[in-house]
Amino acid sequence: MSVHVAQPVRPVVLTGGIGCGKSLVGSLFTGWGAYLVDADQLARDVVAPGTKGRVAVESLLGPDIVAPDGSLDRAAMAERVFANADLLAQLEEIIHPLVHEAGRQLFADAPVGSVSVYEVPLPGRSPFEEEPLVVVVDAPDDVRRERLLARGLTDDQITARMGSQPSRSEWLGVADEVIDNSGSVAELAVRAAALWRRVTGEDPPVGPDS
Ligand code: ATP
Prior knowledge:
This protein has 210 residues and is an alpha/beta fold. 49% of the residues lie in helices and 10% in strands. It is globular. The site of adenosine-5'-triphosphate has 15 residues, from helix 1 and helix 9. Adenosine-5'-triphosphate (ATP) binds at residues 16, 18-24, 121, 147, 151, 181, 184-185, 188.
């Protein structure tokens, strides 16, 4: 389902640090009819069995990164590449262009007049023809840490992942718009709706659950 809005709408890059709440905002936008593409999902799709991405990853890292059920063994991959910067760079050289191309094609096929949203963990090369609006979801590091602990990550995992990402001030530096997610989920929804209004010129559609 996608809604058509009256004014031409700039495409949105929806991003922010680990655990900031971008998936929650993305699902609100989707519920309001946005045409959303999730870069994490694309990164899985482009290395699915039978794809040229899978062939390239297997020839780079070896057949033992494939689990018995045919899926990629993410833990084995991480172990291999995070200890070896060259290998990580080569893996990224395979995956990033494939993700970019898949995103570009999906947005080229977006219904005319829809609100296009690219949910991505880092704002890299844009898949849009037009200059996107970069929307950063923001929450203090300690708040994100608490939420990620509740999601089952360990303190060390969180420290490592946060450490490999831009700092909070760097995130704010790349933002055209910021959605504050330091409060409750209900407050986040109010702020996301305000942004939706600024971007589309319209109120979010009222659904059966609203
Ligand atoms: P990642 O980059 O790790 O995929 P994300 O930016 O997509 O994270 P979410 O998955 O939306 O973030 O949120 C991280 C966790 O914090 C989730 O478990 C989510 O339910 C929870 N969360 C997000 N916002 C809030 C909030 N305002 N109050 C309570 N919990 C929240």
